[in-house]
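pinned: reference chain
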Amino acid sequence: MNATAEAQTHTLILDDTEVSFHEGETIYEVAQRAGREVPTLCYDKRLEAFGACRLCVVQLEGARNPVASCTTPAEAGMVVRTSTEAIKKHRRTLLELVASENPEATINPLRGFASQELNELLCKNDVQPGRFQGQQSGTSNDDDNPFILRDYDHCISCYRCVRVCAEQEGDYAITMMNRGFETQITTEFNNRLKDSACTFCGQCVQTCPTGALGDRKAMRAESLPGELEKTRSVCPYCGVGCQVDLLSKEDRLVGIQPAMDGPANEGALCIKGQFAFDFVQHEDRLTKPLVRGDDGELHEVDWNIALDRAAEGFHKVLKKHGRHAVYGVASGRAPNEAAYTMQKFIRAGFGTNQIDNCSRA
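pinned: its C-alpha cells
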C-alpha cells in the first residue's frame, strides 16, 4: 500500500466501537484486524474474495439482508454488527447444511494445512449433521497419482482449490463442472490430474478447508504412533528460500507443509519442496562412511579414517594441480547448514568461488 492510500483513512462503527480502516479494505479485513471472530470456509487471504460460503455475513445498518463481509467494501460511517443473535442463527443453519452434506468422519490433520477448518467450526458451534438429511452430492475420484487424494465426498464447493490453482499458480489445471446439486471439481475433460496441466505443487491440498483434497504421502503416517509435531525450516532444494513446516512423528519425517507466513513463498511450494522427502528415511541411504580399499571395494570405516582419506585426496590434488582444480557441488538434499559449510570450505579453504548446487535452477 503506497503513502497516498495510507493517508486515506476512514472510520466505521464495528460492534459499538469506532475503528479506522484504509480505503479499499473489506468489512471482513477490518473485523479481522479488530480481533472480531467472523467465521468463513471459502476465504483465503491470498485469493480474491469470493463470498461462496456466506458464513462471514454481518448485519449492516440500513441493509435489508445480512451481507458477506469478505466481499463488501468498508465505507465511512458504516454501522456493522458481527455477532447478533440473528447472525449467529444464520451461521449455525449454514453449518448444519454443510454438515449434512459431508459424511461423519474425523479428518486427520495430515491431509493438509487447512483440513481442520470445517471440523473446528462444527465443534465450536456444537453443530451435528442430523438436522438436515438427504442425498449427498459428493463423489470420490479414483485418481491414481501418488501425491493428491481427491475425496469429493467432503467437498463443499468453496472453490478455494480452483482459485489457488488459477490465481496463485497460474496453472488452471482444475475447474468446476455442472451446476447446482451436480457441481463438482474436475480437470479438463474430466481426466486424471497427471493428464492435466497440474504441476503437483500441492497448493490445492493445503487450502482445502475440509480434507476433500489430501496429501497422500503424509497420510501414509496416519497409523504411526506418536504425536504429530511441526518444525519450521527452509526448503534446501533451490535458492528461493521457501519456508516449510516439517511434519514428524517421533523420529520420522512424515510430511511437509508450506509456511503460509513464509516471506519468500507465502504458502507456495513446488513438487520437490512438497513431496520429495522419502530419501530421508530410505532403506538405501548410507548411514556410515565408505572408503575404497586396496581390493577396489568400498568398506565401512569410522569418520576419522574417512575424513583423513578425504583430506589426503584434496591435499594431493591441490599440490599437483593447484587450487582451481577443486570444484564443489552441494546437494539439494542436504540441510541448509551443510550447503553453507560446503561453500565456506571451497571459498575459505581453497580461495576460489568454484562452488555450485545441484538444484540452483
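why pinned: Residues 42 and 158 are 5 Å apart (CA to CA). The longest strand covers residues 228-234.
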